[in-house]
Specification:
- This protein has 78 residues and is mainly α.
- Helix content is 86%, strand content 0%.
- It is built from 3 helices and no strands.
- α2 packs antiparallel against α3 (34-77).
- It is rod-shaped.
- The termini are far apart.
């Protein structure tokens, strides 16, 4: 399978966040049956974990960029 194909099928942070918002609305709806609510809750927990992992990864990348640029700035002044 090509890399481009993988990227199209890969879940994004934004898609997961949007789905979490939909799930929250469905869970707040008193007409959602209990069995559906449990499945939605389970999906929501998985999406929350996915989003937290994406945010953690982004934070690590940002910290790495900041550290790299800080080192470059320090080298310029030495």
């Amino acid at each position: 399978m090509s890399t481009q194909m993988n990227k199209k099928n890969e879940k994004t942070f934004e898609d997961a966040l949007q789905r979490l918002e939909e799930i929250a609305q469905l869970l707040e709806n008193e007409e959602t049956p209990l069995v559906d609510s449990i499945q939605l809750f389970e999906e929501g927990v998985e999406l929350k974990d996915f989003c937290e992992e994406k945010l953690k990864s982004a934070k690590l990348k940002i910290n790495k960029i900041i550290k790299k640029n800080k080192d470059l700035v320090n080298e310029d002044f030495e």
